[in-house]
């Protein structure tokens, strides 16, 4: 009986919510499935890995590590991106590299990494929201103060 009452009250609570936040860890795990692993970029071979995902200044920030086959230290890039929601998926738009560390030739590396980022992130699916939330009930998805927010109709 308690479980039934708890389920009913939880259902009423969820129906009354106007918005809910998507945890950054969920976005990170979704991105990791698409980005992590061995890659060949033009004349470079290496391995990419998503280190962390967070929200800053109303933009989604993604830290990607690129370990080249012929280098000792991995290159770490901090990328900010805007999001666009096309039901039922969330896509990255306007990707921009904020900073790159562990590089020797900064200008060349920035250009190369910009091309890599555009290849793996620009207009690519970040998260399939339809797997967990009915897309018909979603009004909008936007970047909030500390995470991505789903606003319901």
TrEMBL record:
Provide this UniProt record's keywords sorted from A to Z.
Signal
User: Which organism encodes this protein?
Assistant: Streptobacillus felis
Stored PROSITE patterns: PROKAR_LIPOPROTEIN (PS51257)
Question: What is this protein's name?
Answer: Lipoprotein
Using the record, list the residue span of the signal peptide; answer none if the entry has no such feature. Answer: 1-21
């Amino acid at each position: 009986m308690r479980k039934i009452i708890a389920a009913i009250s939880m259902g009423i609570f969820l129906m009354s919510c106007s918005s809910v936040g998507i945890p950054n860890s969920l976005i990170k795990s979704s991105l990791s499935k698409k980005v992590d692993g061995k890659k060949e970029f033009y004349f470079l071979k290496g391995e990419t890995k998503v280190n962390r995902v967070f929200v800053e200044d109303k933009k989604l920030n993604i830290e990607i590590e690129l370990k080249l086959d012929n280098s000792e230290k991995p290159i770490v890039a901090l990328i900010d991106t805007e999001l666009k929601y096309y039901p039922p998926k969330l896509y990255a738009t306007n990707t921009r590299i904020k900073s790159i560390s562990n590089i020797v030739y900064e200008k060349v590396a920035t250009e190369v990494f910009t091309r890599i980022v555009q290849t793996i992130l620009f207009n690519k699916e970040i998260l399939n929201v339809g797997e967990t939330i009915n897309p018909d009930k979603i009004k909008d998805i936007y970047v909030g103060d500390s995470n991505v927010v789903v606003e319901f109709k």
